[in-house]
């Protein structure tokens, strides 16, 4: 395990539209995500829901109002595989818990760590949303991070915030707490090895499966236990 174990930063719900994703979360957890904003570089936008303990839930979708690059260059691929035809096909069936993001706290510098291990950590992309700025590990093709052919959303993206204020600090309290983040993967041993190397194995319960990779999150809400998948 790395000398600086990672912290859970946020969970990601992918959706065709923000309204669809918001409704899915509201129907399941009893409270609708709100606020958020646009990520100009990635041509995405989001809404957020606060969770207990400095963690939040993000609903993300392609932003239909996003501007194309001013220099006429081809836009970069959207993050979290949102441009992937396989993702489009899955989103036809509805929003789902697609991914999670782990936080790298200072004094460890995410950009330096990535430069030391470029085969293990995707490039760090500077991003903005309103007053917030951060660096996020994003493969050049917009895919989920992987390791030795395994990933598919089960391995986390890495984030480091540039500003001392975290988004959870400005979101309304909800009384919702994440109890457990769980995953199943056909290459569970490979995924587990990378999670240990990252210092993130303690953040997720992983089991092998003969089926497709999958994530689920269990919550305590004011109305009782609920699960997003």
UniProtKB/TrEMBL annotation:
UniProt xrefs under Pfam families: Glyoxalase_3 (PF13468)
Native source organism of the sequence: Paraburkholderia terricola
Residue stretches making up the Glyoxalase-like domain: 8-198
Protein name, UniProt field: Glyoxalase-like domain-containing protein
Domain of life according to the entry: Bacteria
